[in-house]
Amino acid sequence: MSVEQNGFREVFNLEHHLTSEGGFTIGPYRITVNRELIEPDFARSQRLVFGSTFKSSGLKHTVTEEPGSSGAWSVTAAVGEHEGLDQASVLQPKNPWVDGAYDLSVILSLLTGRHVRIGNDVEPYLTVSAGLALTSKNFFRTHPVIDWSLLPVLQAAGAGEAMEAVMLAMTSGNVAVKIAMASAALDGMNTKWFSTSDTNRYTKEVKETVKAAAQAFKAHLETARVRQDLIEDIMPRLGNVANESALAKLTAFLKAGGMYPENPDDEAPKRLQWLNKLRNAIAHSGSIKLDIAETPEVSIRVAGAVALLLQDICRIYIAKYLLKIADPGVDEAQRAVMTFFLSGKYNGQDILTEDYEAYRLRLIDHYEEFGNIDL
To answer: How far apart are CA 288 and CA 80, in angstroms?
Structure first.
């Protein structure tokens, strides 16, 4: 008998971390996990496993390494039939090809870092990749609270389209694609947020002053006998002078989201500037070369960190500030972004000066000595 005949739909690739048969509620939907679905075969990257053992000499901290796995596209849970699954999507109401099941799957994807789909015998349309979860392992174990009435807020904030771009960023193996997609998502939400915030320094009075100055500048050009076609090319571009720069908007957005210091030192703006410079380089030329990086290898490493930073900024904003999710994993990700701007370290690694192998060895040594990974 199929899942559908039993009143359920299959949920593919949801990493729920349940260790026993049970379930949880997400908005109006009840998701269940039976005994056969407790240990599915997920795609995983090579990873360090931290543990402790008791020896005659006392507690000994140990680190082992698990190999990566390509995993499999498989059913990991089931969702009970609900009328909302077939109703029009709230996140993308103008898209006739998606529905309530899509809304549920894209939110689960955002939180788990994996491409989740809902439906019987559905195939993936994105890469089945190793996921980097935003929420903690206990999130689905301890009755997760997600207010489904907030979905219209997400749609109004531009998160509906942004979440699809973030999913592309999460699952792509190409660093340039990751940065491009995450940047597109961030730009869309940042623009929506800024338009309704009170952080714009260019008041109506300032705009009027700049407009008057522009007219005086035009008169000066005409008096100087500048060609008319050049004047007509120059003047429309002056309208942007009285608007906040993209970097200023991003700074305000990050501050409001608790991901950038209110009173930064001299180094934090530099880190934000080269993050923005890398975004622009990808958008305009597809290049990931950075002036601050001494070698191409460092450029690639920095680009990889920036790709993760950008998608986490988007996911943190959606989860914490739009969906109002309270979870230690989300808070930890938020601190990691802030720490990057404060110190240049992302999850403990100094991405400008330290390659992964050096970071890995330093992390192992630290854990074996102190029993924690707080670098």
So the answer is: 45
